[in-house]
Design goal:
This protein has 422 residues and is α/β, with parallel strands linked by helices. It contains 11 helices and 20 strands. An 8-stranded parallel β-sheet has the order 10-9-8-7-3-2-1-11. The protein has a 5-stranded antiparallel β-sheet with strand order 12-14-15-20-18. Helix 6 (238-244) links the parallel strand 9 and strand 10 (249-251). It starts with a strand and ends with a strand.
């Protein structure tokens, strides 16, 4: 559950003293990992790499108390840094930037511009080089800051996104040689050394999340946000990806403050992790029970799906999504820890066109769980399903599905059939 505490324009969404409000939202929506974005003086996407907790939010002391309180209430906390860019208006850029940033063939920096609101000036950033000793030192320093704050998880933004054949560093004073090695060998070295550094601080402090996915990062990164086989990708290929990289924990990047029922079911079927975002004051208003309109986002350059927020049954949807999360936890031996087998060995007789059927195999006893999802708008009969060499043992469903007939599935509902080997 990503929460921007202070935005790029200086607006405070949540001070540290409102951690109870964030926990209440998480509890209602079914999330137990709280993300603290925008904790620094510049808010989110300004003044990087300065992440010292903003006095306007309550300062470092209140930040530590907020993290401690969340953990005492069985939440985990993830803190954010950007692992790629620094604000060119900062002292760090002025005094250390030349040692940290990437240079193109002309000796110029690679520039990114981020603008979250129509009525503010764009914020200009320079991209840093993972093969730079100075930038690695700074990343480790920021990891220690997060550890001292009490965070459980360290989020390093953008590191996994970059194509080394497109963005290359020609700085001769960095540790890499050939330009392309900055985001090949340099990136691997950065993330390997970061993991070792974090483990050296505390063996429990070693969970890393990054944005995007890159197979070279698999040994060093625990979770990847924004995987390319999510429901939001028109060319998604979830079955192929799950077969090829079964070890990947992928988070669906969701810029809305709520998941709908269809999204939640898709993520259950394909073993994806869920996300909601509170990025703007309108998101906070929605999550606390208010009705939102376009006026709540009138200056925002990238608002959530406002029509969705206006039309969705918030309470009923959150109730179902939470039950879907609990369903996954209850059957984690299949859905989290089992092996995705797609439709391997599964026979289906005359399925309806909107029925999706996927299988997971238990790693210990070889039993098979078959997820049946009716993604359509009409009630349909569950087709006859058999698994070669297996007999059906049990049937399960998330808590609020109103089906009274075991042979049918309501619209946008799921059922799990468990088969034991003979």
């Amino acid at each position: 559950m990503l929460n921007i505490l202070k935005q790029q324009n200086g607006e405070v969404i949540y001070p540290f003293s409102e951690i109870d409000t964030i926990m209440h939202i998480g509890e209602k929506a079914g999330f137990d990992l709280i993300g603290l974005w925008g904790r620094g003086v510049g808010g989110h996407d300004r003044f990087y790499p300065n992440y010292m907790p903003d006095p306007l939010l309550g300062g470092a002391g209140m930040a530590g108390k907020a993290v401690k309180r969340a953990k005492e209430n069985n939440f985990k906390v993830v803190t954010y840094i950007n692992g790629k860019i620094i604000d060119v208006s900062t002292d760090y850029y002025s005094y250390s930037g030349m040692d940290a940033i990437m240079l193109d063939q002309r000796g110029k920096p690679y520039i990114e511009v981020w603008k979250k609101y129509e009525n503010i000036s764009p914020v200009v950033f320079a991209a840093c080089c993972p093969g730079s000793a100075e930038w690695q030192r700074k990343i480790f320093e920021l990891a220690k800051d997060s550890y001292m704050l009490g965070a459980d998880v360290f989020y390093v933004d953008q590191v996994s996104q970059v194509d080394p054949n497109i963005v290359q560093c020609y700085a001769k004073h960095h540790r890499h040689s050939h330009p392309a090695e900055a985001y090949s060998k340099g990136r691997i070295e950065l993330m390997r050394n970061l993991r070792n550094y974090m483990t050296g601080l505390d063996e429990k402090f070693q969970v890393i999340i990054t944005e995007g996915i890159n197979d070279t990062m698999l040994p060093y990164v625990n979770m990847f946000q924004g995987v390319l086989y999510s429901i939001h990708e028109p060319s998604a290929f979830p079955e192929l990806f799950k077969f090829t990289f079964p070890e990947v924990l992928g988070i669906v990047s969701n810029s809305n403050p709520i998941l709908d029922r269809y999204e939640a079911n898709y993520n259950v079927v394909y073993g994806l992790k869920n996300e909601i975002m509170t990025r703007y004051s309108g998101d906070r208003k929605f999550l606390l029970g208010g009705a939102v309109t376009e006026h709540d986002y009138e200056n925002v350059t990238g608002p959530p799906d406002i029509n969705k927020l206006k039309q969705i049954d918030r309470d009923q949807t959150q109730k179902y999504v939470k039950e879907a999360f609990e369903f996954v936890k209850t059957h984690k031996q299949y859905l989290n820890h089992g092996r995705f087998i797609d439709d391997e060995g599964i026979q289906v007789k005359q399925p309806a066109k909107d029925i999706v059927i996927k299988g997971y195999k238990h790693n210990m006893d070889n039993s098979v769980a078959v997820i049946v999802w009716n993604k359509g708008d009409e009630k349909v009969a569950i087709p006859e399903i058999t698994v070669r060499g297996y007999r059906i043992k049990a049937s399960f469903k998330p808590g609020d599905i109103p089906d009274t007939e075991n042979d049918y599935l309501s619209p946008n509902a799921i059922r799990m059939l468990v088969f034991d080997p003979y």
